[in-house]
Amino acid sequence: MRALSKPIAFAVLFALAAPAVALAALSRETLNGTWESPWPPDVLPKPGAPPRPVETTPPPLKPQYLAAWKAQQKAAAEASARGDAPVNGAAQCIPPGMPSMMNPGFPVEVLLSPGRMTVINEQLNQIRRIYLDEPQMALDDAEPWYQGHSVGHWEGNVLVVNTIGLKDAARMSGVPHSANVRIDERFEPTSPDTFEDHITVTDPEYLTGPWSWTYHYRRKSGYKIEEFVCENNRVYADPKTGGQRIRLEP
Questions:
Q1: What is the pLDDT of residues 29-66, one digit of tens each?
Q2: How far is CA 44 from CA 41, 51, 182, 194, in A?
Q3: Distance separating alpha carbons of residues 244 and 238, to the nearest angstrom
Q4: What does the angle CA 75 – CA 80 – CA 86 come to, to the nearest 5 degrees?
Q5: Which of 2, 11, 55, 142 has minimal Cβ neighbours within 10 Å of its Cβ?
Q6: Domains of the chain: which residue ranges?
Q7: Nearest to 193 by CA among 220, 155, 215
Q8: pTM of this prediction?
């Protein structure tokens, strides 16, 4: 077998070592900063660009709940197609809550501090606190919140998080859930400027099995989270169309 020349051998060794060097450069602090989707919804794709991936997956709802959910999604799609925006919680000044608030459709800021990680989604000024190295509370003690009650611990550079205690109004894509719903996440840095949030929802009452997907983030350097306040709270559902209408009187 012919020996590799020194330049070629060095190039091969460098190529093999590069991923390890990149991963070694990552740390827990990599998650600090402001982030956005790699495919921002407000940025039009370039001509000829591949279609944007769909990050979420259909919910594995039990048959007795699936038909109603599909009818709801169909009605919303038909309303949007005719230019009649469907009514949803955000339009009525209700925060989407977990796990929807982790969707990077709006910029997301992550702040690491001793004992906690704070996540701020610009949409409706949603704030989530993940307490580190604490036991999860008993479900009976978890007062229902939009963001739930989150605790986490580090496994190397990956933050593993468990969330319980969600309000009924905190729904992902309109999917109902029981008081026993739980959300498990793995925040995984993939480069100095990207990370992934691997999400798994389990609910023995509504779902036939785990519902999993991954949100992707890229760093949005230099961006400052802006104020987003829903002030009118005058949106209502038109009984004829099911679409949004706004009360104009004070």
A1: 999 999 999 988 777 777 877 777 888 899 999 999 99
A2: 7, 11, 35, 21
A3: 6
A4: 65
A5: 2
A6: 25-43+80-246
A7: 220
A8: 0.81
